[in-house]
Amino acid sequence: MFIGTGKHARREIAFAARTVKAHTRLPVAVFADAPIKSDCIDVFRQVEPTHKRLKIDHFADSPFESTLYLDSDVTVQRDLSDLFGILERFDMAGVHDHCRKSSEWAGQIPDYEAIPYAFSEVNTGVLLYRRNAATNAFFALWREHFYANFRATRGQDQASFRVALWNSPLRFFVLPFEYNVRPQSIRNRMRKRSRTQADEGLLAPRILHWHDQHLPGQRLLRLLLPSHRPMRY
Which residues of 142-164 are buried (b: 16+ CB within 10 A; e: fewer)? Predict the structure, then answer.
């Protein structure tokens, strides 16, 4: 399922839907503010653009029992059918966001600040979920926090998602990062922000895990040889 408004988003959706069909047999549903000419769209619903995160109002309106929501700016490169097996045990799944815990939102939203750094933000551009009472309740809770903090976050939705998820009994699974690969420029921007006092430690490794770190020269080797450097997650 795709949700987007505006000419640019509609063009992105047409391209993204084509990549879905190139690698899967999944039906594609689109919620947009105007029709999109594409033979890759199976279900279309026209919606009114009320704000830039319109998707938050329509997740619960998916025509599918099991839904993979994708932002318009994606390219699917492999079959995604195996993802839906996750929903046999979990209500929803997504991938961690590089933001982790934003000092900006923490300074404005007490409920967000109270959550540990280790409970990372989730990137809401790729969300897998099934239709049931738990997800319906979660979407209602997410919308509640989203609109309560709409002005503070300037309409950003991931801060409210983090708060809602922390306070929800939803069975949530964290997918491997290869299901939502972000550009290096975003990580670089996050690391640049981490140089400020408020974000010191953002994306900094907490635990290094491989053999022979105790041996002399291993730390120098790690600096010199790419195979011995920490992965840039």
Answer: bbebbeebeebbeebbbbbbbbb
Q: Can you give 11-68 as a three-state secondary structure string?
A: HHHHHHHHHHHHHCCCCCEEEECCCCCCCCCCEEEECCCCCCCHHHHCHHHCCCCEEE
Q: One-letter amino acid identity for 185?
A: S
Split into its structural domains, the chain has a count of 1
The answer to whether residue 179 sits within a structural domain is yes
Question: Rounded CA gap, 217 and 91, in Å?
Answer: 47
Q: Residue 30 carries which side chain, given as an amino acid letter?
A: V
Which amino acid makes up residue 87? L
- Per residue in 138-177, pLDDT tens? 999 999 999 999 999 999 999 999 999 999 999 999 999 9
pTM of the model: 0.89
Structure tokens at 97: 């966001």
Q: How far is CA 65 from CA 61, 127, 183, 187, in A?
A: 10, 14, 31, 34
* Residue 96 belongs to domain with CATH number: 3.90.550.10
Q: Which residue's entry shows tokens 């990372």?
A: 120
User: d(Cα 49, Cα 23) in Å, to the nearest integer?
Assistant: 30
